[in-house]
């Protein structure tokens, strides 16, 4: 029996256990040995993470696809796992040590600290996995992987070594995003651009050979900068080659204020004549753009900061080279001063000597570490790099050829822009938690890259014996005795960027580099579902690595979903206080309601504006299905063995079969095209509008009447249509559908493993005729077993008849609502100039139409009665007399006022949207809100205009 009340919390945990006990989501099930595989790899969430709304959307969409394809008979592998999240995890454990007043990682040493991190991971990591299960994610949980488990670590080392041997991994000194608090390079994704109210300082740089005079503009050139402290590392001033103001100065030199270094004036298109003074200081070691200018002009790279963001000038050969006598004192004065304190001192000195021309307020974006919160420093340092440009070429060609396609297609442009302008990929991080780089250094700094220390030692011994640094006998002794080679070679302390290991995710999780059956069966994967923000960081790198090592693209389709915003369209953030917790929504409304909300709003290319009211609305939707299923159960609705809906004789029952087929086609086609919102809305309409509001309502007289073949058929049909609903709805709302299937279907097997309502072979005319010839419910007539094609069945005649009833009642209800006619007021209806079909069907449905439309009588007429509103229903006129029922004059006045009010609202919004300043300066969500107000006002106006037009011909 179905419980009286729908309680998501009661059934969701129970259904999870049912699936788990049955190993329902396991790939490679014996019954699917010959089925086509369907593979999705989960974007591995950080092991430190907890479920946020982005995860909820991403995993809901993946789960819909997996459940859909599983029901279509495919061997589905949804590969789960988590990412070790280098910085995030190391910070968690270091913070824990600090809070407990325990020794820090430096005091503990690398080995003990890493043991502590593994302990934390085993005890507390992976919380998000259980949260994904609460969401209903149907991953093959028995195959869960971790980016630092033994198999994946083996793959990472092999890839690093092979790419190094091929010259595609190398060490170089370049600028990186440096976090002065965490003391490591970080990726662009870990950099948060924050708007800061600062200043633009205009500095006078004296021209060489001229006597500097603040009052003489010909004696200096003015540059504008937001970072005056980095001027200590300037190696040029750049002007645009077409800027006539400075053409006479190109090739000359200026004297760097305070420092005394002579630096050239170069012509470079990087300088924008429209910004500042048109002249810019070039500091190659402290700005990414300046670094490229410096390379173009062969400028020296002078780093003036240390790892902690302090001025470092003493013993800094790059800084001291070529400086005049007395520079050492200045270097000692500023050495060790924190960068922002140094800024203040430098500005004071510049002003004192007349080098500061003016200061202007300037609001600009400043990069901050998303975890440390400090200002990120472009920092010149030795790091390991991947030759991404070379690896990107096949990845670009694969998308251009269509081997991999993006949905929506417009994201391919973003992919190409990034890939065609790709820079070397910095893969080293100054952390302890992560895959330690498999590189060892000899006593002279020679690098030996190998898969194991033993292999590296072997290479080093061979090299140094050949170089006669050690003897062959010493080499043999080192090879045999670890103690004798202590200190001979030292391993690189750095670890790899977490994106390096996750770039291998589609094949390393399947057991590569071993030649496993899983690699052969499940690679390449079918579709990747991910957010646009990691197209470059993850998608592109998986493409590069997959093509290089597997010689095939890692996935044929990349579905890019949008952001989940708050109900006003604002991006969710803790600082705004508008973050919606998906777990709280699950607690309150159930996972099914949240999942359906996200799917129903996941229109391609459009951000989701999530409101808790919408989630509550879909909770009500689930409740309606629950109550409809209880109604069916209480009225003895079951599907007899061998029943085929194509055998139904009753027009109403053939109509629901027709509508079910239409819904099946619509949902199937939408899911195949990744139009999740269209699929969700199609099943919603079928459940709420067609099945609950119309079919069950129209079937009630039969179900509540005397026993008859029609009643037996209707009972079977109500149950059959309910089962089709459970199948179609299951990918979206797995918990409630599985629970209802368990309670009502009364057959062996889980819904999640049941076939999707579709078959390729269409029933023949002879089969359908044989079924139709059988007297339904006659125990003497054996049932003819024919599988119903739920996607291909059509009965246009049934649709025409029942559709007419539905449309007629709907039109009458609309007029009653528009005219504010009370439900208790019964009205007559005249069918004007009715066709033969209408004259035939109207008497059959007269009682139903009168009950549902609140009519006193239905008659036929050649012309519309005086004072009647005329409704056109499927090409024919139905007249609803309003005289004496509605105060026509008052109603016209009311509708005119409503139209005028809507016009005023539209005009007010148009003024706002026509104001360029408002559109340019207002928050994006506010502009979007105004557009929505306009659309709502237009819809109101159209509704009132329709109502008014109905009254125009009424006396």
TrEMBL record:
Motif ('HIGH' region): 45-55
Record's keyword terms, sorted: Aminoacyl-tRNA synthetase, ATP-binding, Coiled coil, Cytoplasm, Ligase, Nucleotide-binding, Protein biosynthesis
Residues engaged in binding ATP: 574
InterPro entries the record matches: aa-tRNA-synth_I_CS (IPR001412), aa-tRNA-synth_Ia (IPR002300), Anticodon_Ia_Val (IPR033705), M/V/L/I-tRNA-synth_anticd-bd (IPR013155), Rossmann-like_a/b/a_fold (IPR014729), tRNA-bd_arm (IPR010978), tRNAsynth_Ia_anticodon-bd (IPR009080), Val-tRNA_synth_C_sf (IPR037118)
PROSITE patterns reported in the protein's UniProt record: AA_TRNA_LIGASE_I
UniProt-recorded Gene Ontology molecular function terms: valine-tRNA ligase activity
Reaction(s) catalysed (UniProt annotation): tRNA(Val) + L-valine + ATP = L-valyl-tRNA(Val) + AMP + diphosphate
Motif stretch ('KMSKS' region): 571-575
Top-level taxon of origin: Bacteria
Keyword Phosphoprotein carried by entry: no
The protein's enzyme class: ligase
Aminoacyl-tRNA synthetase class Ia domain mapped to chain residues: 18-611
Gene3D superfamilies: HUPs, Isoleucyl-tRNA Synthetase, Domain 1, Valyl-tRNA synthetase, C-terminal domain, Valyl/Leucyl/Isoleucyl-tRNA synthetase, editing domain
Localization per Swiss-Prot or TrEMBL: Cytoplasm
Coiled-coil residue spans: 892-947
Domain (Methionyl/Valyl/Leucyl/Isoleucyl-tRNA synthetase anticodon-binding) ranges: 653-825
Domain Valyl-tRNA synthetase tRNA-binding arm: 887-952
Spans traversing the lipid bilayer: none
Domain notes: ValRS has two distinct active sites: one for aminoacylation and one for editing. The misactivated threonine is translocated from the active site to the editing site.
Function of the protein: Catalyzes the attachment of valine to tRNA(Val). As ValRS can inadvertently accommodate and process structurally similar amino acids such as threonine, to avoid such errors, it has a 'posttransfer' editing activity that hydrolyzes mischarged Thr-tRNA(Val) in a tRNA-dependent manner.
Protein's name according to its UniProt entry: Valine--tRNA ligase
Organism name: Bradyrhizobium denitrificans
